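Before a colleague's protein record goes any further, I have to sign it off. Thanks in advance; the entry in question is below:
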Amino acid sequence: MKIRDVMSKDVQVARPTDTLQDVAGRMATGDFGFIPVAEGDRLVGTLTDRDIAVRAVAKGGGGASLVSEAMTAPVTTVLDSADLKVALEAMSTGRIRRLPVLDKHDRLVGVVSLGDLSTRVKEKYAGEALESISRAS
């Protein structure tokens, strides 16, 4: 099975020049805590609710701060044509729970989460990935 078969395709995207308040509001309304950051159709970073709290607010930044000031870059990604185990390995190695999915032209086409994968791969592999991701640094 390929990543394209399990990824979420309906993905909202932030721009580096969006404010954290705007993006946090979109996260609250949509009930999600992760958003890819793109310039045009090129992925330049990711932003999580934790990034907003730890990289921005905890350091004195406010809602008017820009996404570019709190986003994670560079980004670990996976190709939509990759096997599911490739995503699990990337998540485990990078200790991340969500991966932006790119097509062969490096355009963002979706996001795959550990939850998306856990229902499709052997329980053993998902459990090992979660253990790696959750391990204290």
